[in-house]
Amino acid sequence: MPTTLGELSxxxxxxxxxxxxxxxxxxxxxxxxxxxxxxxxDRPERLSKVSASEIAAAVVPRxxxxxxxxxxxxxxxxxxxxxxxxxxxxxxxxxRKGIHPQAIVSPTARLGPDVEVHPFAFIGDDVExxxxxxxxxxxxxxPGCKIGxxxxxxxxxxxxxxxxxxxRCIIHAGAVLGAYGFGxxxxxxxxxxxxxxxxxxxGDDVExxxxxxxxxxxxxSTTIGEGTKIDNLVxxxxxxxxGRHNLICAQVGIAGSTTTGDYVxxxxxxxxxxxxxxxxGAVLGAMAGVINDVPPHARFVGIPATPEREQMxxxxxxxxxxxMRRQLKEIQETLRQLxxxxxxxxxxx
Length: 349
Known about the structure:
- This protein has an 11-stranded mixed sheet. Strands 8-11-14-17-20-25-28-31-34-37 form a 10-stranded parallel sheet, with no helix packed on it. A 7-stranded parallel sheet has the order 9-12-15-18-23-26-29, with no helix packed on it.
- By secondary structure, the chain is α/β, with parallel strands linked by helices.
- It folds into 3 domains: 3-88, Udp-n-acetylmuramoylalanyl-d-glutamate--2,6- Diaminopimelate Ligase, Chain: A, domain 1, CATH 3.40.1390.10; 157-304, UDP N-Acetylglucosamine Acyltransferase, domain 1 (3 Solenoid), CATH 2.160.10; 320-348.
- The mean pLDDT is 95.
- The longest helix has 28 residues, at 321-348.
- Helix content is 17%, strand content 28%.
């Protein structure tokens, strides 16, 4: 629904530079916004790349004083633009309907007030689900699980028995928590599954991405600390203990019994071997292969992962190899000529 630039400025508490009665018909990211839409420009250096004919207006950082188009100056560009997008595209409000008759809920399960269970979900014996939680279609919650308050579990996620989920967690579609760990003993020439008596425990405010898997502990718990956010397609092995407020990006693989401190960041496709510790605040660059402990607040990249500066020096040296090869061939040729002359001098003598 159309509105005016002045109304949007009031909505986000910004400083308006431009006509308050300018009609705005929508909001879109930079590069997608049209001449009747507002966009966001989060870095001042991008202003020069946008013409007034491309967009109607922009949300910009407060330090921007002027632009060739109307602007709303704010402290937090992304927060303000989120409010504007929400205004034009409000989230769908679904009426909560409680437990659907086509859901399967064990008579021994205990569900708190305002829990919603969608059709074809399965909730096993002795499961506990806290107030205000939502269980989508196709979810399987096996016996003995404990789900906190205001938790959302999206379609087709599976929680094996005795999984514990803290308050306000989000578990996306297809995630699997508590599958058997990849541990075997060799007996009489055959691989025999090791003990699988543990579980998975998520702290409060954890988010698990789509199709991520977290294996149960062997005897104890595989734990994910409070506030940690895990992307799609991540694999976390048995007995791992992930700290608080970690950020783990897509396709990371963490082998069993690895531990991390708080506020660790792992970029996409990082691989971590078993039984190592990643220190508090450490950052692992994309595709890093970690084979040893990483100190707190370190930045490691490469395969095998080493400190960022060390890896940059290696890459700089590697880039010089073609030139070094050419120089080596020149040295070899010069040496060959010197040896030939020396031999000629000996023969002449």
